[in-house]
Amino acid sequence: MFNLKYTHIYLSGILTICLFTAVITGTPVLYAENSHDDTMLMFVGENLEVLTIASRREESAWQAPAVAHVITKKAFQERGADTLSKALETIPGFYMAKPEWGTKPYFRGIPDSMLLLYDTVSVTSDISKSIHPFDHELSLVSVKRIEIIKGPGSVLWGPDAFAGIINIVPMTGKDMNGVETGILYQTPGNNAGTYINMGYDAGRWDSFLSISGYAGKEDDNEYNVLKFWGDTDKPADINERYGFDNPETSRYIEAVGRFSFDDWLNISTRLTDNKKAYTITSEEDMSWCETRENPSGLIKIEAKKAINHLSHVRMTGSFFHMETQQQIIDRKLKQRENEFYGEVLYDRSVLSGSGLFTGGVSYREKHIKNAPIWDGYLPDYLKSENLFLLPILTETNYNTNLWSLFCQYSHRFGNTEAWFGIRNDNHDSYQDRTSFSTGLSWSPSSEWIIKLLYGTAYRTPFAKQLQENEKTDLENIETLNLQIGWEPSWQWGLGFCGYWSRLEDHVMEDPYAGLSKPNHQEFTGAEIQGHYSPFRFLKFETNLTLINNKGPNEEYTFLKETYIDSSGNEIRTYEDRSYPYDSGPGALLDFIINWKPVKKISSNLRISYTGSRQLIHPRGQSFMSSSGVWLADINTIIRDIIMPDTDLEISIRNITDREYETPGIYSTIEGEGINAQIVLRKNW
């Protein structure tokens, strides 16, 4: 019988043989990039958006071996998107929930399921899957484009490229040779920000630097628990515990730099410092203030070398550091994450340019310090009848490392392209895993594209999973996509993507209520989008997302009660509860009108619908629902308003001032009301 214990060894050997074979074979007829990219980057006589994460080289989203989208700088500026969440919420499949602590992303019914990359460097956290820089923590002023892959991407990008990938591509000196400055003001809240972008193109080398800042009152909801932990091993005295106050001002600072030389050496860096203050309200009408600071930094060095006219080698090294400083009422917690990453990637054109092999080896090492592990549901402890007990909080340190070997091969047969990829990940702390991807793309004419794709991926455990059960099976997903696109001209375009996904061994996380038991869920859905331009100055766009989820309830084991017996011992009792899976809204709709009445004015109106949602959270006694809501946003840009190269942008969100409720963390909260933002930009 075949011994599964050695599966990863055999697969590693197969991948090594594939890599070696590709190096020594191939017919030297065409230059690798010309044989693929030049044809892919053109469609119906127009330049398409460039994508780099589908096969690790530049190509068009239309022809890429993936269900792909690109949001260009021009597109997200015209729609008034100054944060990543605002840019993504216009893309089919994405729902950006707005709980108290910031954006919680849902993709195709699965929360916290996308791998987020900044210039191909992972900026996600292993301490908690719910820490995301989707709001002002990541400024878009220095971003060139946003690349999106829908479906598992673990073969080329490793663990956590789960339901998909988002890659933030920063600007370079070749994108802007000069200086751009900007200031903004937003109301209500008296929020304000400023930035400066500086680029220089010297021909053989170029450089870019961006510095931005934003501050304001993001949450003015009053809270009533002022003190709890106190200075002893018991809760603070009742007379000191309660009162009324409001969260302080939030602030965000970011610096981005990039240097390139002769298209073979690229160095990029990003430094951030931010502080977000917010109020959390529980079902028991208890509310408290939390602040979260996430100073972080990354540096990436990439070198590319052409071996010959057929093949290239690319070497990448990166370091990412993040310190999470969280204050919960009067208790301060500090965590630290360091990630070291190294990769050698090889690509080669074979068989007269009709085939492309990509393979590589990578190493990742993570160091986690003071990851918080809660035992107990915080809102229960805040009640006035609790005089003696504090929730148990332990902090754990751990290190992990990961070796990976991967390859992907694509081959074109006339107007058909097929591809297959495999990756083997060898972990020191949890199970080894193998990921697969395969697909077929058929373009009967330049107007049509049909793609059928299948892939698998898994997600590495977060801190509490490792602490509680190191033997747990890793959460994994398999996804089948069918995409059909039709683009007969610049005026018309229609697209459809149907998908099926299955989750296995997934675990839901609540910061104060523990983990759910491993479970499985199944998803089916459809994403439909289209655009029509009756004139060059007028464009209509629409997209519809439908999601259906089925599967058993999520089961939790909760700490029900803690008390001190007559002998002074702490006694704990537990209970099991089950809750439906939270897949977010089942329907999302966008209708967008882009109007350019004159050359220097453009206006963008977005009308959106978000379906009803249930508030599902651990320890909830009932399931509150928020009804579906229609909202309207408008953004207008006036160019050369005072002097040449000076732009004024005016954005108004929720222009009808619609009052609605949306699920928070433990209770429904009031949705964002009408707000306006003014941005003034100047190119020097």
Question: Overview of this structure, please?
Answer:
With 684 residues, the chain is mainly beta. It has one domain (4-683): Beta Barrel (Maltoporin, Chain A). It is 8% helix and 57% strand. It has 8 helices and 45 strands. It has a 23-stranded antiparallel sheet that branches. The model is unreliable at 1-47 (pLDDT under 50).
Output the keywords.
single chain, 684 residues, mainly beta, Maltoporin, Chain A, 23-stranded antiparallel beta sheet, 5-stranded mixed beta sheet, 8 helices, 45 strands, 8% helix
Please outline the major beta sheet. Answer: 23 strands, antiparallel
**Fourth-level CATH superfamily:** TonB-dependent receptor, beta-barrel domain
The total domain count is 1
Calculate the terminal CA-CA distance, rounded to whole Å.
71 Å
Determine the strand fraction and express it as a percent band. over 45%
Mean pLDDT: 87
| Model regions low in confidence, pLDDT < 50 over at least 5 residues | 1-47
The helical percent reads under 10%
Give the beta-strand count: 45
Distinct helical segment count? 8
C-alpha geometry: globular
Family: Belongs to the TonB-dependent receptor family.
Organism: Desulfonema limicola
Membrane topology: Multi-pass membrane protein
Protein name: TonB-dependent receptor-like superfamily protein
